[in-house]
Amino acid sequence: MELTTVWFLLIAVLWAGYFVLEGFDFGVGILLPVLGRTTQERAVVVRTIGPVWDGNEVWLLVAGGATFAAFPEWYATLFSGFYLPLFAILVALIVRGVAIEYRGKSASAKGWDRAFFWGSLLPAFLWGVAFANIVRGVPLDAGHEYTGTLLTLLNPYALLGGLATLALFTTHGAVFLALRTTGELRARAVRAVRALLPATIVVGAAFLLVTADKPAAWVSAATAAVALTGALVAVLRGRDGWTFAATTAAILAVVATLFLTLWPDVMPALDPANSLTVTNAASSPYTLTVMTWVAAIFTPLVLAYQAWTYWVFRRRVSGANGPAAEAFRP
């Protein structure tokens, strides 16, 4: 297998990991004002992701860094053409991080909770918009420069993609809260999962039906539909762990559908002659070889450390686990 193909697959894996892990972080933030009806309950909601949310964001940094190193032309075109949406995502992530860290230091956490909500909702929606545009294709000139506007990116297909990721991440977050909380808070989270899953299946199916254009992508899209249906069955049977595994599988299948549809392009243009592919956007073979050795050595260490973190903080969180002022701490 050529190294360009290897790194295309590795970048897909990094985005899949990011969306699985940050997906429930986004969902928790979106559901905070809905499920947390008291100060103590909202503190418990935030505490469920307290030890892991910043580690989950590392997947985004690595995905961006890998894209820059392996496919610099793709990185340059993407970040110049999608500057405003990506800047909005960056600002939202900063606001969310500040809100998580400072809500426990304020006499009133309401303002920080609103910041946490919007800092979760906007990325959950805009990531879908961005990836839908990447798959659909954008106007590029012969020099691979983006020639559209912000309104070009806000097309119906991209907005449908944004709704799909928003629904999927919100549902994933509700499942995570059901898995990590107890008592009435868990009961509300379960009810939220039951209410959200049917809508998520409908929106997700609509998006995948108009996205998948190859047999392999059809298989992954069907896998996503089966996984979401399995999640609905699992939550009706009260199996929190299986429900979380099913929504995780659905996110993985959605990412697989996007990247399988994209291949062998990395940034398709409306004029196919101007598209960026894994070949014309890649770094030199020497650079890819060095990167491969570095990834082979350090990736297992990072995965082992993050898995250990989740194992340490695997227990359910309740109001008895600490005061509201310490909600953001492990």
What is the gist of this entry?
By secondary structure, this protein is mainly α. It contains twelve helices and two strands. The chain has one domain (3-326).
> Main sheet: which strands, in order across?
1-2
Mean pLDDT: 89
Class by alpha and beta content: mainly alpha
Strand content: under 5%
Overall shape: it is globular
Low-confidence stretches: 320-330
**Quantity of strands, as a count:** 2
The N- to C-terminal Cα distance equals: 42 Å
Kindly provide the radius of gyration, computed on alpha-carbon positions and rounded to a whole number of angstroms.
20 Å
What's the number of helices?
Answer: 12
| Helical content (DSSP H or I, runs of 4+) | over 70%
Order of helices and strands: HHHHHHHHHHHEEH
Total tally of structural domains: 1
Largest sheet: 2 strands, antiparallel
Key terms:
330 residues; mainly alpha; two-stranded antiparallel sheet; disordered C terminus; 75% helix; 2 strands; globular; 12 helices
